[in-house]
Every structure is written in C-alpha cells, then in structure tokens.
Amino acid sequence: MRDISFKTRERSVPPISGGIAALGYPLILVIVALGAGFRQGGDMSAFAATLAATVLFLIAAPTAWVMAFDFIDVTRFTVLAFGIVTSAPIWYVVGVALARRSPRWLDWLRRYTLACVLWTAGNLIAIGLIASLVT
To answer: How deeply is 81 buried, as exposed, middle or buried, from its count of CB atoms within 10 A (0-12, 13-18, 19+)?
Structure first.
C-alpha cells in the first residue's frame, strides 16, 4: 500500500501559457494581412495582394464574416476590431485544450501545428468550393 500516491500529476505545459502561445499563428496572419499595401495606388498586383490578405485575415479571424451581412454598415476598422476581439478567445481556448492534452511543449507544438495546417487547408478548400459554386 505504500506505492499509492494521491498527488496530482504535474504538467509541463501550463494551460494559460498554451493559450497565449496559440495566439501566435493568428497574430502573424493578421500582421501579414494588414501589411498588404492599404492606401496605395491600385493595379492588378495590389488587388491580388488585397484579396490574399483578406483570405489570410479570414483564416486568422473566422468570426469576421459576420460583418458581411447587408444590414450591417461597418468600416474596415470595425471589421478588423470585431474579427480580432471575437476570434482571439477561440484561438486561446484551442491552445488551452491542446496544453491540457500535451505533456511536453514539443507535443503541444506538434498538435498546434497540425491544427493550424488543418484549419488553413479546410478554409482554403471551403473558399475554393464556394468560389466554384459562384462562378
């Protein structure tokens, strides 16, 4: 009976740190999206860059599409602020959930990378399917 221990197992990945670390990918995507040359003269390359930036922003902030309804008249800042404020908790919760299931940071990083790749691929496939239905 001496070998029984009622201590809780210590995890090396704190859930709060995992949640904060999970904000890295969407933050990088938002920074890249915002650096797409807003307020510059428009040629076809600027249009393509703006379109790519929009896709990146929608991957980083999946709740921003709510502002696309016709009855909501918003500015670009409102869309950006709403998307970031409402999507950050989603990414944080994903990071916390992965941290609770990961005994080491390497495991967390592997699972987080897989989740980001699957999320990005799923969004690109969905955008492609919607685009093929519209055209």
So the answer is: middle
Report d(CA 34, CA 20) in Å as an integer.
21
CA–CA dist 1, 89 (Å, integer): 45
Average pLDDT over residues 49-71: 80
CA angle at 18 for the pair 9 and 56, rounded to the nearest 5°: 155
The residue type of 68 is: A
Q: What does the chain come to in residues?
A: 135
Q: pLDDT tens for residues 80-122? A: 888 889 999 999 999 999 999 999 999 999 999 999 999 999 9
Provide the residue type at 9 as one letter. Answer: R
SS (H, E, C) 24-59: HHHHHHHHHHHCCCCCCCCCHHHHHHHHHHHHHHHH
Task: Count the neighbouring beta carbons within 10 Å of the beta carbon of residue 78.
Answer: 13
What confidence tier does 63 reach under pLDDT thresholds 50, 70, 90? confident
